[in-house]
Specification:
about 230 residues; Arginase, Chain A; eight-stranded parallel sheet; 6 helices; about 25% helix
Length: about 230
């Protein structure tokens, strides 16, 4: 597979305060689009998709968890069988309004995609979920994904990280940064078809969480580059 291509989506100003990250990849300015935070009509979603370039293999920085539904755009572009690894403090399978997709409902839509097989979920305990969502309590078991022939897409919401390490704008989980990196270390890079990362803090230039968030972004980016011996960041 080809090299990972970094892509940075500007829904608001948050990444403009992360200068080191901005130097790593292509940027798309989406700040002029209205009606896309939290909740997005399907018509608007199609307009949004037209503005986001298609890479064969990308690591995309989406911004706030308010826009996590953008993952659905990347998933529906995949035309081969694949599995999804979702690392998130929330399982986004809630109902939403007809004709809309939201940051809390996108996974429900994704489960209807033709080529998506299973969702491997790392996050809080869940009940009454579809059988195709597999809760992973022991991250070492993720090594089994290296033996499955299907491609793997990874979606990470940094609200899984404890607020003692980072402050996001959603209720947060229990992991520290090293835990997250260790979890990802069990995954072979060879089968990864794409990655996205969200969970940015609010775009306040005086908030120390922005610098912490950028450091985490760079560590995640380096992790995937290191797996290909292509580390590009200091």
């Amino acid at each position: 597979m080809g090299n990972i291509q970094p892509l940075i989506l500007h829904f608001d100003d948050i990444y403009f305060y992360q200068k080191a990250l901005r130097h790593t990849g292509r940027e798309v300015d989406l700040r002029g689009m209205s009606g896309v935070r939290y909740l997005c009509s399907i018509e608007r979603l199609c307009e949004l998709e037209d503005k986001i370039p298609t890479y064969k293999r990308s690591i995309t920085f989406i911004g706030s968890g308010d826009f996590h539904y953008v993952t659905y755009i990347f998933l529906r572009r995949i035309n081969e069988h694949f599995n999804l690894l979702l690392i998130d403090n929330h399982l986004d399978i809630r109902e939403t309004f007809d004709g809309f997709i939201s940051c809390g409902s996108w996974l429900k839509d994704a489960l209807n995609l033709k080529y998506l097989r299973y969702v491997f979920y790392i996050g809080p305990d869940i009940i009454d979920v579809p059988e195709r969502i597999i809760k992973v309590d022991d991250p070492t078991r993720l090594s089994i994904l290296n033996k499955i022939e299907s491609l793997l897409y990874i979606s990470i919401d940094k609200d899984i990280i404890s607020n003692s390490f980072l402050e996001t704008n959603w209720e947060q989980g229990y992991l520290n940064v090293d835990d997250l990196l260790e979890i990802l270390s069990y995954i072979s890079a060879s089968n990864i078809i794409g990655i996205d990362i969200c969970g940015e803090p609010r775009p306040n230039p005086f908030d120390p969480s922005i610098r912490k968030s950028e450091e985490i972004n760079l560590k995640l980016l380096n992790l995937f580059y290191e797996r290909e011996d292509k580390r590009i960041l200091a």
